[in-house]
Amino acid sequence: MKKYILLFVITFSLGNTAYAQWSKGKGKGYYKLSAWYLQYDQHYTDTGAIDPNATRTQFNTNIYAEYGITDKIDILAYVPFVAVSSQNNQISGTNGGTIQPGESVTSFGDVDLGINYGFYKKGKWAASVKLILGLPTGEDAGGSDGSYQNGDGEFNQYLSTHLGYSTSLGDLPFYAKSYLGFNNRTEGFSDEFRTGLEAGINVFDSKLWLITRLNVVKSFNNGTLSAVNSNGSIFANNIEFSSFGFEAAYHITKKLGISLGFDSAFDGKIIAASPSFSGGIFLDIK
To answer: Would you indicate the residue range of the signal peptide (predicted)?
Structure first.
């Protein structure tokens, strides 16, 4: 089987009325326990074409947290404490026999730690800068062929700027925001340019946020790793994609809520050509 492996991109999920704000405020926080799932039997190749592959699944259970240490500075963490990479049995279409048995690897995933600084807020506008450090804590070469990965094995530093605008559409709170970022990668992986847009509207007596987003990642193609590396480094090198996503976050109480969402690449290189799904429960301390 060709070792075209996906890089799954976890989008930090929100779920509260602070979507258009860029700092939580001192002593305030947001905490979320969620699961993320992707199953795919086709992928975008390095030329952007779509090819079939044996059915693979990526799954993780994770915790995401934001906490305001001052009125302008938040610290954040994303911890996938259970991550699973698996492949189904490959079955012969002729006699129904097993051509290749499936495998599964369970491990800790790659942890992200970060800091967010809200440097501007005036009227309906807000701006911030964020630094995220990606730690190589996940399995990057599991299974019999090294392609069962729950991490990429490299330490990266992602710096981004964010600009947001909040207003009302009629009586409904509404926000829109954009971001630009640069992801510096190590261990021979190519650096990345990232950008995106997001918008959300609050309905049902301020209980439900409906959010849509667009994310784009472009590779600088300046790494030294190639598709033939024995450790499956194609998992995360020179990926590119444009993806669309949707999320619904419902407040059961003022502090407690649940969310459901999906994201899917509609164009890409070396990435799964199937949607991913997520769901979780969050606690918003204002």
So the answer is: 1-20
